Amino acid sequence: xxxxxxxxxxxxxxxxxIATAPSEKRAFSALAKAAIARPTIAATTRVASGVASVEARxxxxxxxxxxTEETVYERADWPREKxxxxxxxxxxxxxxxxxxxHGQGLNLRDNGLNVIVGVRKDGASWQQAIDDxxxxxxNLFDVxxxxxxxxxxxxxxxxAAQSETWPQIKPLLTEGKTLYFSHGFSPVFKDLxxxxxxxxxxxxxxxxxxxxxxxxxLFKEGRGINSSYAVWQDVTGKAEEKAQALAVAxxxxxxxxxxxxxxxxxxxxGERGCLMGGIHGMFLAQYEVxxxxxxxxxxxxxxxxxxxxxxxxxxxxxxxxxxxxxxxxTTARRGALDWSPRFKDxxxxxxxxxxxxxxDGSETKRSLEFNxxxxxxxxxxxxxxxxxxLEIWRVGKxxxxxxxENN
Length: 407
Ligand SMILES: NC(=O)c1ccc[n+]([C@@H]2O[C@H](COP(=O)([O-])OP(=O)(O)OC[C@H]3O[C@@H](n4cnc5c(N)ncnc54)[C@H](OP(=O)(O)O)[C@@H]3O)[C@@H](O)[C@H]2O)c1
Fold this sequence. Notes:
Blueprint: H1 3-17, H2 30-37, E1 52-54, E2 61-65, E3 68-74, H3 80-86, E4 92-95, H4 99-110, E5 115-118, H5 124-131, E6 140-141, H6 143-149, E7 152-155, H7 159-169, E8 178-181, H8 185-188, H9 190-193, E9 202-208, H10 212-220, E10 225-233, H11 239-249, E11 252-257, H12 260-272, H13 277-292, H14 297-319, H15 321-327, H16 330-359, H17 362-371, H18 376-389, H19 391-401
Parallel strand pairs: 4-5, 4-7, 5-6, 7-8, 8-9, 10-11
Antiparallel strand pairs: 1-2, 2-3, 3-11, 9-10
Helix pairs in contact: 1-14, 4-10, 7-17, 12-16, 13-14, 14-15, 14-19
């Protein structure tokens, strides 16, 4: 990226930051102004932005996402008193205390619901739960005891562990209980996971769109993470309502309706693609070419990762892709607009292969095989070390030290 383009982007970012000061003179184009003014889905009146329109009714919102109507629920529909009343006869047995268990469990507890944790006594999570104030024999039990006490069993074991422990868990899921997941993985791929849910209970899902740590942090800030919810089995006729209520109870702000299948397919696909695997592959490919063509490590890193994460991607996140283009130099815009379809055409077949691999269960099979090995943590750590040792990420460590905020 040319220094001129960088300056332009930096200026746009700076302007964006001060955009809330009404008296400030802003150097935005009409497009940039439009992006800033774009309403969020928190709007309470009907808006016609050309992007999304919001029908503000309590209970559910029919939102037009770029031409497709979808149903979204919101936290305000389930205030704390209503949640307490709705779950007054329930014991929420949260099984597993990893990333999601920690976040969802503490949020449920802070919301005043009757929640207990079930984890194996010899694992790391048992001590973690004690450190977080769960008391053995009061609200911390081993897995079987917690399930026996629970009316709503929240299976937040790792996906591989859900499959591994299913023969032990299934007989405890007696009539009248509800089974809750945060991923469609186990029931959707039941041929591989062997998680065949009992036919006489409600089975629901709430999948936060972020890590368990974020679920907790946003809740503590008085905000809520976006989540999707779905129903796998509705025996009582109340499964959908229960899923919505639980979504809010664990700390969600807006809740999107989906199905178990769509949730797991999109999730496995996304994390292997643009969210993690795809973007890492693209960084590596670009960096390697720059290095092979004689560029220095710092230059290759800055042009590949640093400007992306520090300057341009935050603009996409905050205001959209058009805003990012608009914030850059005419030279950069022209080139990026011309090359974007070529990348799309080159990558689309790979994305289709990936989706097929998700759909036919290959990704699930691989995940189960790898993550149920006794030494999977050690093997994973070895792979992380290999990433740490790559030149690009060693360079990144040094470049980060030179950021303005670190000086
Ligand atoms: N992490 C995310 O960002 C995220 C986001 C959305 C949804 N989800 C979904 O949420 C669910 C939980 O994921 P997570 O990331 O929170 O899991 P995690 O951090 O990997 O937690 C794993 C938990 O499972 C327990 N466990 C592992 N193997 C076990 C075994 N053989 N027997 C008994 N317990 C065992 C661990 O206990 P020990 O300490 O005793 O090993 C720990 O409490 C998954 O379905 C996942 O797909 C995760």
